[in-house]
Amino acid sequence: MRVLLQVLTALALIAYPVAVYLGLNYLPAGTIALVLCLLLVVRLMLQKQKVKTLVLPLLVGIALTAGSFVAKRSDWLLYYPVVINLTMLALFSYSLYQGPSMIERLARLKEPDLPDEAIGYLKKVTLLWCGLFILNGTMAAYTAVFTSLATWTLYNGLIAYVLMGLLLGGEWLYRSFWLKKT
After folding, report:
1. pLDDT(2) > 90
2. Does position 35 have pLDDT exceeding 90, yes or no?
3. Is there a contact between 57 and 84 (Cβ–Cβ < 8 Å)?
4. Dihedral through CA 13, CA 14, CA 19, CA 21, nearest 10?
């Protein structure tokens, strides 16, 4: 049951922008804020590790959704993607400063004995991800403040994911084909 709840809450959080769009357009006022708040609370309770960096965006999300419900301010729901991008930027940036880089950590899960020459490359990839989080966070804030709900949903629910997929896939292709030739 725990695994099912983890999967369902993860999918709901991935679909957060679409849920906000549908909820604000088709549900009674405040309903989507309450539903999202409950999902975030469940997700927080399901955390196996109480790691601050994973708990913080959930707590901020709970505050935004609960505050949105109580204050009857649906616009507060639009800032959760900003929080997620800022959190990811902080994690990845801190790993560059503190080491090892986030991408190196992830790479070592699959290949614990990485060659030394890979470390610099993995730092550069981590830096690329930081750039993407800056772009996505900036656009998430911009769309929350200056655009329509439809534009916000399009960017945060589709374009941001496409950009992440392109970076992930592009880096994999580069590493698989071009780096192996050298």
Report:
1. no
2. yes
3. yes
4. 130
Planar angle of CA 123, 129, 134, nearest 5 degrees: 130
Q: Could you tell me if 172 and 121 are in contact, meaning their C-beta atoms sit under 8 angstroms apart?
A: no
Q: Provide the token pair at 160.
A: 């941001």
In this prediction the pTM is: 0.87
Q: What is the DSSP string of the chain?
A: -HHHHHHHHHHHHHTHHHHHHHHHHHS-TTHHHHHHHHHHHHHHHH-SS--HHHHHHHHHHHHHHHHHHHHT-GGGGGGHHHHHHHHHHHHHHHHHHHSS-HHHHHHHHH-SS--HHHHHHHHHHHHHHHHHHHHHHHHHHHHHHHS-HHHHHHIIIIIHHHHHHHHHHHHHHIIIIIHHH-
Rounded distance, CA 181 to CA 168, Å? Answer: 20
pLDDT on residue 75: 93
